[in-house]
């Protein structure tokens, strides 16, 4: 898809170009996620950023067409697909509060009876994937089909090398799943769930793909084809949880700096939503100590500062 020159893009493109130039001069980009061997070799100085309008117009700078490992960004889409199917019943199995702990922590589960704090920590995402698996019999496949449709890119696919790497180093996720199963909060066999979860997180997509795929949250629940996935209230709920829980235990700082609903992944990507206006995705694989892209957060901070767009 070529860069399109609408009135909005003429406004945003100079902003994106300025951000990319500033980021290129920024030292200290963090380190890739070395606990997933398939991600450890990524260049921390890689950078791409895309903006998608509500009508599907998309444009960007840097390596905005370069596929990367989506990782926890996919939790947003799995949440939307399950919430669309079961509605508020989901919230009996996973909470909506910030955790204050690392994304793969087991600490809170025991004294909260196997109910994860929110859908974006690993325990919560496992519950959501489990429930979508029960309803579709192929949660990862359902997610992939959705992302292909919303991005308009039928070539999106799982990265089987990344999936295998995550499975081989997924003892903590297995522990989370087994622990929640002991409380009756997991329906499927744990090995089946872990396979689905690893494939879900392994999907490779570009900034352009993800900015487009996130558009239904800026359109208040309306998909790219004009059909409704979520009610306006449900779209608001997901945006709210993204704002308060979407960047692990750094969500408060992200809200303070960026002021948008966002969701990060340890592959270095971050999606963000300007409700009623546009969606963004930024990618740079160097992470801070909390698992968020150093350059990605900085770029979104500059975007909202330069444009004045935020939810506040």
Could you characterize what this model shows?
This protein is of the alpha+beta class. 47% of the residues lie in helices and 10% in strands. The chain contains 14 helices and seven strands. The chain has helices at 7-24, 37-40, 74-86, 107-111, 122-136, 139-151, 160-168, 171-182, 190-202, 207-213, 215-218, 232-245, 251-257, 294-307, and strands spanning 48-53, 58-62, 68-69, 204-205, 262-264, 269-274, 278-283. Strands 2-1-7-6-5 form a five-stranded antiparallel beta sheet. A hairpin with a 4-residue loop joins β1 (48-53) and β2. The longest helix has 18 residues, at 7-24.
Give a short summary of the structure.
With 312 residues, this protein is α+β, with helices and mostly antiparallel strands. Helix content is 47%, strand content 10%.
Largest sheet entry: 5 strands, antiparallel
Count up the helices.
Answer: 14
Number of distinct beta strands: 7
User: Into which percentage range does the β-strand content fall?
Assistant: 5-15%
| SSE order | HHEEEHHHHHHHEHHHHEEEH
Gross morphology = globular
Stretches where pLDDT is under 50 for at least 5 consecutive residues are 1-7
Structural category: alpha+beta
Q: Over the alpha carbons, how many angstroms does the gyration radius reach?
A: 18 Å
Name its key features.
312 residues, 5-stranded antiparallel β-sheet, 47% helix, two-stranded antiparallel sheet, 7 strands, disordered N terminus, 14 helices, alpha+beta
